[in-house]
Amino acid sequence: MELNGNVPEGDLKNLWEKHKFNMKLVNPANRRKFKAIVVGSGLAGSSAAASLAEMGYNVDCFCIQDSPRRAHSIAAQGGINSSKSYPNDGDSVHRLFYDTVKGGDYRAREANVHRLAEVSGNIIDQCVAQGVPFAREYSGYLANRSFGGAQVSRTFYAKGQTGQQLLLGAYSALSRQIKSGQVTMHTRSEMLDLVMVDGKAKGIITRNLLNGAIERHAADVVILCTGGYGNVFYLSTNAMGSNVTAAWRAHKRGAYFANPCYTQIHPTCIPVHGENQSKLTLMSESLRNDGRVWVPRKKEDVAAIRQGTKTAKDIADADRYYYLEERYPAFGNLVPRDVASRGAKLECDNGLGVNDTGEAVFLDFSVAIERDGYEAIKAKYGNLFDMYQCITADSPYDVPMKIYPAIHYTMGGLWVDYNLMSNLDGLFVLGEANFSDHGANRLGASALMQGLSDGYFVAPHTVSNYLASNKQEAVSTDMPEFEAAENEVNETSQRLLDINGKQSVDDFHKRLGKMMWQHCGMARNEAGLGKLITDVADLRKEFWTDVSVVGEKGDLNITLEKAGRVADFLELGELMARDALARKESCGGHFREESQTDDNEAKRDDENFQHVAAWGFKGVDNEPERHTEALDFKHCIPSQRSYK
Amino acid sequence: MSSQGKLLNLTLKIWRQKSRTEKGYIETHEMSGISTEISFLEMLDTLNDQLERAGSAPIVFDHDCREGICGMCSLYINGQPHGPAKATTTCQLHMREFKDGETVFIEPWRSSAFPVVRDLMVDRSSFDRIIQSGGYTSIKTGSAPDAHATPIPKEDADLAMDAATCIGCGACVAACKNASASLFTSAKISQLALLPQGQVERTDRALNMVAQMDEEGFGHCTNESECEAACPKEISVENIARMNREYLRASVVSRK
């Protein structure tokens, strides 16, 4: 089935303005009659909940943490892009739009990305007005830097804690609305199902994580802002609690899941050290501005380093293989994320990895320290070097860092139209939880922009339009739909508790993660993906017969929480593999080995795959249905990338 | 194959408490073969894995990002909030900080304003209520002036940033013998008092946030500076001095 993105007709430049004018409004006095449920309290969730509440709607906001301030948006480091062109270096709405569409490898909707670029300036204004302490020049004006290989300086930042400051800004706006009573905040609450009434999203079922109570909540619209699903890989840079459950349960109620195979791999993470590891830590990509990536040329040097008889310093320059500089002289160490990531994997697969596990390459600052001096490097990267030393006990001032790629951000998510509404009436999806805007985006400092754009500047208008143009029938949590959904949630929990198997929830999660990383990680091929589909299905069967979940349903139960999330990852994993298998092209965060140029670069197939793939759920063990939405490029003409 | 580092044997003395109202007790667990490369929370994961395999309830503790920024992890470790390493959250504390054969005491934050939920998990919603009482600027969405319209001296912006770095973990309260929330509250009051955007609500903010802090049952500051010493983000007690000045000023100029 061909999906319609509902992009309004007209000139791209005025599209959003015109659409805003054409959309219906809700009279200020009538807004108090409506209620919105916002699930998630990160950049998208906090900003959406605060904005809608401020307009006069009643908002119920939910998060799984003890406070909305803990959402994982808080961990973003680098910065947020905006087309303000304060440095007067030629940036514009059009250039940011163009770079983002190109960076997304022509797999995003032009109209959505253009709107994102348009409102990006307002985001900075909004955050500054909230008191977000962005970096300043001595003049008192805002400082900018270039990020992720962009040729203009359009990134605003607050030290290495931009995500934290933006989230705290949105959290403070949300806090103001909580105090006023316009937002009812439900912390330590997990959404376990979506309730549909007469084909419209009208509520959710949640589990109170403190006492296990199952609760029903009804509203006129449901807005999911629940982040990405990178934890399907078990080891990732995501927070431990990040999960796909809310989005996945909505998918099982009919919401299409789009482009699940698009996963961003970050090249500069601290390598895996062992089986007990719980997560991977990202080192900011800015390090590649001064760090040189290399591995030893000779296997005997690799062996000596692993045995500890030689250190990096003992390897002569001629015996070091600066593979990125040699292969991509024009970009060198600054090649895009997925190119750098694949490069590291390739050298490690060739047996040149420099740590015990064979999965690490050097990121070496010795030349930069010699050239610019210790103090200059300390001023630039001091906090990152300290963080690295805290985790590994090595000082990057003395020895090169060891790095390896890791899963960072997911660009797939629930399908939404131009209004950010899913194919389910009344279900909106914002931020990383939707598939929109980025496509296979590989650009830094874009994710924060999308979360806040959706929450502050898009959803408040489109949700109002939805409420004004559709008659909202009264709903109550006594309705049979709510009871049925609650019963299903209870049955699933009881089923998990009754298995009484031998393996722990983490055992299954780790096994799933390894399978996903092996066959649906940095590179994918037909045989591997075919095997993955079967293996994940088998693992899922094993999970439902042999998992051990201790404790009770009606109680605080961290094992049961994890079990429900892993059960969903076990279904999502298979869908990711199916999506990757069907997309027989390489594209952004999806590198299909069968589709590469003679130089081993990603090769798109615009003729056959210039579309969004959105999957409909047909039952756990049935093949899902693939729908497509054709993408039309009028302003950015697709071109093949080359970093040579 | 993996990078194990050294392997430690440890005795853990861990606080268990079923609920806010039930009495807590110390439970002892012997751990062996703990790699010095893993983090403190990964060590607890390992223990929980063993407990679950034995059919026992895992030890409940708060954690999330494991990158030292979300502020969710807590714990007194050998009597110190977030353990022995300076300027480090529990999730960033690594086992190489411990010695083979050591006995490690692990307890939840102790403060009546942070009631125990279960085991090592406490309720820190009092911090949220302090922010709700005035830790924001009342700007409406979509109507903000251009960001460049208000220049801010770099020194002010940097100081505001230093204060804004607070992650709201509660170590300051845990470290204080009075269980005072002054460092947390003053960080937000400082951040907004230093910036032009925060001026309009400056008086009410100082009065309301301090009043809320008292209402939540936090103690008063007696300038021990234990909070600064324990803070994983090295928030300075200079902020408390600024909060006190803001409060004094507000008390004089407020017409309420």
UniProtKB/TrEMBL annotation, chain A:
Question: Which Gene3D superfamilies does its entry note?
Answer: FAD/NAD(P)-binding domain, Fumarate reductase/succinate dehydrogenase flavoprotein-like, C-terminal domain, Succinate dehydrogenase/fumarate reductase flavoprotein, catalytic domain
* Listed SUPFAM superfamilies: FAD/NAD(P)-binding domain (SSF51905), Succinate dehydrogenase/fumarate reductase flavoprotein C-terminal domain (SSF46977), Succinate dehydrogenase/fumarate reductase flavoprotein, catalytic domain (SSF56425)
Cite the InterPro entries for this sequence.
Answer: FAD-dep_OxRdtase_2_FAD-bd (IPR003953), FAD/NAD-bd_sf (IPR036188), Fum_R/Succ_DH_flav-like_C_sf (IPR037099), Fum_Rdtase/Succ_DH_flav-like_C (IPR015939), SdhA/FrdA/AprA (IPR030664), Succ_DH/Fum_Rdt_flav_su (IPR011280), Succ_DH/fumarate_Rdtase_cat_sf (IPR027477)
Does the record's keyword annotation contain Transmembrane? Answer: no
The cofactors named for this UniProt entry are: FAD
In this chain the FAD-dependent oxidoreductase 2 FAD-binding domain maps to 36-448
Q: Where are the annotated segments for Disordered?
A: 586-605
Q: Does the keyword Flavoprotein apply?
A: yes
Entry's PANTHER family?
SUCCINATE DEHYDROGENASE 2 FLAVOPROTEIN SUBUNIT, SUCCINATE DEHYDROGENASE FLAVOPROTEIN SUBUNIT
Q: What is the protein name for this chain?
A: Fumarate reductase/succinate dehydrogenase flavoprotein subunit
Biological source species? Lentisphaera profundi
From TrEMBL, chain B:
Q: Known SUPFAM superfamilies for this protein?
A: 2Fe-2S ferredoxin-like, alpha-helical ferredoxin
**Which Pfam family, an example, fits this chain?**
Fer2_3
Q: Which domain of life is it from?
A: Bacteria
According to its UniProt record, which cofactors does this protein need?
Answer: [2Fe-2S] cluster; [3Fe-4S] cluster
List the InterPro entries.
2Fe-2S_ferredoxin-like_sf, 2Fe2S_fd_BS, 4Fe4S_Fe-S-bd, Beta-grasp_dom_sf, Helical_ferredxn, SDH/FRD_Iron-Sulfur, Succ_DH/fum_Rdtase_N
Task: From the record, give the transmembrane residue ranges.
Answer: none
Tell me the ranges covered by the 4Fe-4S ferredoxin-type domain, including all copies.
157-186
Q: Which family does it belong to?
A: Belongs to the succinate dehydrogenase/fumarate reductase iron-sulfur protein family.
Instruction: Kindly give the PANTHER family that the UniProt entry links to this protein.
Output: SUCCINATE DEHYDROGENASE, SUCCINATE DEHYDROGENASE IRON-SULFUR PROTEIN
This chain belongs to the protein called Succinate dehydrogenase/fumarate reductase iron-sulfur subunit
Question: Which species is the source of this protein?
Answer: Lentisphaera profundi
